[in-house]
Amino acid sequence: MTSLIGPNGAGKSTLLMMMARLIEPDKGEIFLNHQNIADIKTAIYAKHVATLRQAPGFNLRLTVEELVSFGRFPYSRGVLTEQDRQVVDEAIEFLSLEALRKSYIDEISGGQRQMAFLAMTIAQQTDVLLLDEPLNNLDMKHAVQIMRALRRLCDEQGRTVILVIHDINFATNYSDHIVALKNGKLHFSGLTEQVITEAQLNDLYELDFEITYSERGCMCNYFNSSGA
After folding, report:
1. Distance between CA atoms of 2 and 13, rounded to whole angstroms?
2. Is the Cβ–Cβ distance between 29 and 36 less than 8 Å?
3. Residue 68: CATH number of its domain
4. How high is the pLDDT of residue 78?
5. 77 — phi, psi (to 5°)?
6. In the Cβ-directed half-sphere of 150, how many Cα atoms lie within 13 Å?
7. Average pLDDT for runs of 10 along the chain of length 228
8. Which residues form the ABC transporter domain (predicted)?
9. Is 198 in contact with 204 (CB distance < 8 Å)?
10. Structural domain of residue 110, as residue ranges?
11. Nearest CA among 204, 217, 116, 124 for reference residue 174
C-alpha cells in the first residue's frame, strides 16, 4: 500500500488521475509492468487498474449488489456469467456487506455507501487499485473499516493499493510506502518507517509535529492546545 500525502493543492489527486489515464501528463511517461500506459488498450488497462474517484455517485436507483456488479463490466460487458456472480459475492463478503446487498445505495449511510463502491472496485479484480481520498467525509469507525479492508487486500490477495489520503495517522499506520508531494513536486518518498519523521512532516506541512510510538502504532500529533 502506498499513500500519497501532502498539503491541499500539492498535486496528489492529479498524479493519481494521471495513473488512472483520466488526465494526460504535460510531460513524462507512466509505466505499468514496463509498458507505457498510453499504449495499453482501454479494455486491457481496465483489467489491470481500477479507479475509485472522490464522491462517486449514480443517478440510477441501484442496490448494493447491482452496484458491485458494475465492477465486472471489463469482463462481462453487462452480461454476468456464473463466475462473475461468484466474484461479486466474494467482494460483498470481503467487506461484510451481505446484510445490505439488496439495499438501495441512496438509502444507506455514507460509510456503507463508500464500502459498496469499494466492493465494486474490488470486484474488478485488478492488480492495482487507485483510490482518491476514500476516507473523505467518513466517521472514524467506517474509516478504520476501509483502511483495514485495504490492508487485507494487500496482505491476503497481493493487490497494490495507491491512495490519496489526508489523515497522516492512517497513512503512517497502514501504508508500506509514502509519497509526499508539495507545490506540485515530489517532496520525499520511501518506506513508511524510514521517511515519517518529525523533521520531514514539519517541513511538508509547516506544522510542529511530535511523533510517539506505542503497542498500538505510531501517533503523529500536530495539535497545540495553547493555540500557539
Report:
1. 14
2. yes
3. 3.40.50.300
4. 76
5. 55, 35
6. 34
7. 97 97 94 96 96 74 95 90 96 96 93 94 97 93 95 97 98 98 97 97 97 95 71
8. 1-208
9. no
10. 2-221
11. 217
Number of folded domains that form the chain: 1
Q: Which residues have a Cβ under 8 Å from the Cβ of 217 and sit 6 or more positions away?
A: 172, 173
Question: Is there a domain that residue 62 lies in?
Answer: yes
Compute the Cα dihedral for 136, 140, 144, 145 and give only its sign. negative
Is 227 domain-assigned?
no
**Helix/strand/coil (H/E/C) assignment for every residue in 145-198:** HHHHHHHHHHHHHCCEEEEECCCHHHHHHHCCEEEEEECCEEEEEEEHHHHCCH
pLDDT score recorded for residue 224 = 74
pTM of the model: 0.93
Q: How far apart are CA 51 and CA 62, in angstroms?
A: 20
**Residues constituting the chain:** 228
Map residue 164 onto helix, strand or coil.
strand
Q: What is the torsional sign of CA 7, 11, 13, 19?
A: negative
Residue 152: the pLDDT is 96
Residue 228 lies in a domain: no
- Residue 148 in any domain: the answer is yes
Q: How many CB atoms lie within 10 A of CB 212?
A: 9
**Rounded to whole angstroms, how far apart are CA atoms 112 and 115?**
5
Give the model confidence (pLDDT) of 193-213 as tens digits.
999 999 999 999 999 999 999
Cβ-proximal residues to 175 (8 Å cutoff; 6+ apart), any chain: 1, 2, 3, 192
Residue identified by cell 479507479 is: 51
Residue 228: per-residue pLDDT: 53
